[in-house]
Amino acid sequence: MMRTLLAPVIGGGERIDLQDRVVVITGGAAGIGDELGRLLHRRGAYVALLDIDADAVRARAAALGVRAVGIAVDVADRAGVRAAIAQVREGFGRIDVVVANAGVVPRPATVRLLDPEEFDRVLAINLTGAFNTVQPALDDVIAAKGHVVVVSSCAAFAPGMGGSPYMVSKAGVEQLGRALRVELGGTGATAGIVYFGVVETAMTHGTLDEDELGADIGALLPWPLDQRITARQAAEVIAGAIENRSARAVAPVGWEPYALLRGVVNVALDHKLSVDKRVRTLTQRLEQRILADRAR
């Protein structure tokens, strides 16, 4: 289930050899970002890991040894990210590749009862954080004829009940990646979007496995959309997307038909889910839990 569909960039330049390339990875202290840092470092890249967890990101970089640095920064902090990108530039002399990977999920909630601050927090990290990461490095990437990867999600085109801030943010990341891909045309640099289904990470376990309602919402996914890949497999997908300058990558491959046909599928699916008794019951249970928590 780790097979992917990688779309090449037509006229996007030669394949990228990661040897001696400088790669910035946000969310680099855990999950996909951690695995990607290890993988690219083994392939000869200089790796700059950025993460809000200062101790963890420095430990990850120290474990890699030479050709790695760990920088503590919150991607929602625009000035902080600019300073971090400048630190990478000064330390390694260049930036070839940027991977905007950092992301969070909200606790399940309906739009009606969602804490507005939680909505803002998720978009600040997932969407604005991707912009904050990519923009200050673009001149470097263009000069190096490098590549940008923004990590979206299959949630970008899936129904968002119970977790709308995440879906909204990842749909925004997709559009950011599409804009970059077009705008970089002719510069020699390229950009692409990676879409993942369910990846085995601590974030996934906390959202879908350890939360009863989250698990029930996750159970609505039919086969093969419910299939999972590991964080290491996800990292291999991103590494391949970088090396091939892929315009897009989707994993697991079972999501690809949905990705391609979403304009038609979602019209029918949204209606189906809006009248589905299981979804209505889950929505009621979710709102009851939120109200009960607030009453405590």
Automatic annotation (TrEMBL):
InterPro entries: KR_dom, NAD(P)-bd_dom_sf, SDR_fam. CDD domains: SDR_c. It comes from Nocardia vermiculata. Gene3D superfamilies: NAD(P)-binding Rossmann-like Domain (3.40.50.720). It comes from the Bacteria. This is SDR family NAD(P)-dependent oxidoreductase. The keyword Oxidoreductase applies. SMART domains: PKS_KR (SM00822). The keyword Glycoprotein does not apply. Residues 21-202 form the Ketoreductase domain. GO terms for molecular function: oxidoreductase activity. Belongs to the short-chain dehydrogenases/reductases (SDR) family.
